Request: fold
Amino acid sequence: MGKQLVITSDIMLKVEYDLWEEREDKYFFDYDSYEIRPKDEMVEGNYTIPLVHVSQVTVMKEFITSMNDRKLSQEFRSLSDKEIWSWFWTYFDDDGPLSSRWHEFDENYRKKLITDWCENNGISFRLDLK
Reply:
């Protein structure tokens, strides 16, 4: 069967790690060990590529777009990324009725992002999201 990257909940969290900016790469996939490692734990000489990542605000914007709510979209369109992050929780906080819809969207977005990344980079994988 060969090596497989086991995509766990912990790895899924590493995909979405910046609040509003997509900054420098923090995690890398090591083709030799088939593991995700932080930048400071990379093994010199091993073949590595940056782990795909996305800002939380990018996912929030996609979620708002997916709702097809013109009024809500207009409210968020004029905001900066920092303002979006702050205002988002006014509408979708953990106690609100749309909270479960947001969390499901967020998980599915990150799952698709990392599985597409694996397929595009020839990385055999399996999901283990308990």
Remarks:
- The two ends are 23 Å apart (CA to CA).
- DSSP finds five helices and seven strands in the chain.
